[in-house]
């Protein structure tokens, strides 16, 4: 187990970064096992940028999907999904729409974060080639491989309340043997840090017991540095936190939709405030369906999966913020939590 989304057997994760001077953006792809996974989505932010999310409505036709795309570049970056779609079509993976096995339409839901201009070049953003590179990276990994965190993929240009954000992941195995895991792109208008103590909000509820706050002098110095960085960079006006929460449990599409909704609680524990008009907070849920729910006939059997989904999202956000390194350049000054507080 790697405490990662890939602990859900069959899921693979790949990252790609936009190349070139002035670029600070990228794309992350979650690749499902061949044949796809049951999927759902819940959008809570007031300014989302998404693609193919209507297809995930339990009332609609598509039953399973082959990949989810998380990308930088705001709405421009949604073009990355076209590269993933082309890669899947070449392999005959998608919704069968004709007599020939090659007659498929890959449904590739996607969501974007705002990171335009953070590297200095407003037009340096993901496109179809970035999406293809990310899905190829995912396909090249071994099953159960570790997932790179921090300023990688869609988290390359992520910022949380003026502090460097990024990609994070976490997982847990329930007493029933069901695995629940999450991958996030932490990029929010709100802060991940308690301004009174310097403790990451997500640390208060991560189950690790007592939290020791940073030294008050270290915290005061961190606040001063962060204020100076915000003055140089300007207050972020458009952001978004994205997540994929996954399980190997056998969920219906309606149950997956409920999991996507309750997983938003994990964002709210780790970032304050959330779901603002200038956020586009979006959570996808995936269920590979290889394990039955404990007490499958019981009406409340899903509860432990729902609770775990929110927990792993919170832990993944903490990991994203702690894994990121500081970035300073023509697009702004974004100090990292580990540099501000001297953590490893």
Explain how this protein is built.
- The chain is α+β, with helices and mostly antiparallel strands and 344 residues long.
- Helices cover 25% and strands 23% of the residues.
- It is built from six helices and 17 strands.
- The strands form five sheets. The chain has a six-stranded mixed β-sheet with strand order 5-3-15-14-13-12.
- A hairpin with a 2-residue loop joins strand 16 and strand 17.
- Helix 1 packs across helix 2.
Defining traits:
344 residues; alpha+beta; six-stranded mixed beta sheet; five-stranded mixed beta sheet; 23% strand; globular
Brief characterization of the structure:
The chain has helices at 80-90, 128-139, 216-233, 253-270, 303-323, 337-341; strands at 12-17, 26-31, 37-43, 50-51, 64-65, 67-71, 95-96, 104-105, 110-112, 159-160, 163-164, 166-173, 179-186, 242-249, 282-291, 327-329, 332-334.
């Amino acid at each position: 187990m790697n405490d990662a989304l890939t602990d859900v057997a069959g899921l693979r994760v790949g990252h790609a970064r936009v190349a070139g001077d002035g670029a600070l953006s990228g794309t992350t792809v979650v690749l499902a096992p061949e044949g796809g996974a049951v999927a759902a989505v819940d959008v809570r932010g007031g300014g989302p940028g998404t693609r193919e999310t209507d297809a995930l409505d339990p009332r609609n036709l598509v039953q399973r999907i082959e990949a989810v795309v998380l990308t930088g570049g705001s709405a421009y970056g949604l073009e990355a999904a076209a590269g993933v779609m082309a890669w899947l079509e070449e392999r005959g993976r998608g919704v069968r729409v004709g007599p020939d096995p090659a007659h498929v339409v890959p449904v590739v839901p996607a969501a974007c974060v705002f990171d335009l201009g953070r590297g200095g070049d407003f037009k340096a953003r993901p496109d179809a080639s970035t999406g293809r590179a990310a899905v190829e990276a995912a396909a090249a990994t071994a099953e159960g491989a570790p997932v790179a965190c921090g300023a990688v993929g869609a988290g390359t240009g992520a910022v949380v309340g003026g502090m460097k954000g990024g990609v994070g992941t976490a997982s847990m195995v329930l007493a029933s043997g069901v695995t629940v895991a999450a991958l996030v792109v932490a990029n929010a208008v709100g802060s991940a840090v308690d301004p009174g103590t310097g403790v990451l909000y997500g640390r208060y509820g991560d189950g690790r017991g007592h939290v020791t706050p940073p030294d008050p002098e270290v915290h005061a110095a961190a606040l001063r540095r962060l204020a100076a960085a915000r003055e140089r960079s300007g207050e972020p006006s458009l952001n978004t936190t994205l997540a994929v929460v996954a399980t190997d449990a056998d969920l219906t599409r309606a149950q997956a939709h409920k999991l996507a909704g309750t997983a938003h609680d994990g964002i709210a524990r780790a970032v304050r405030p959330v779901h603002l008009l200038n956020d586009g907070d979006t959570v996808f849920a995936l269920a590979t369906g290889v394990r039955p729910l404990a007490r499958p006939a019981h009406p409340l059997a899903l509860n432990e999966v729902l609770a775990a989904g929110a927990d792993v999202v919170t832990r993944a956000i903490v990991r994203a913020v702690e894994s990121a390194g500081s970035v300073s350049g023509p697009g702004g000054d974004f100090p990292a939590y580990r540099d501000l507080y001297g953590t490893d």
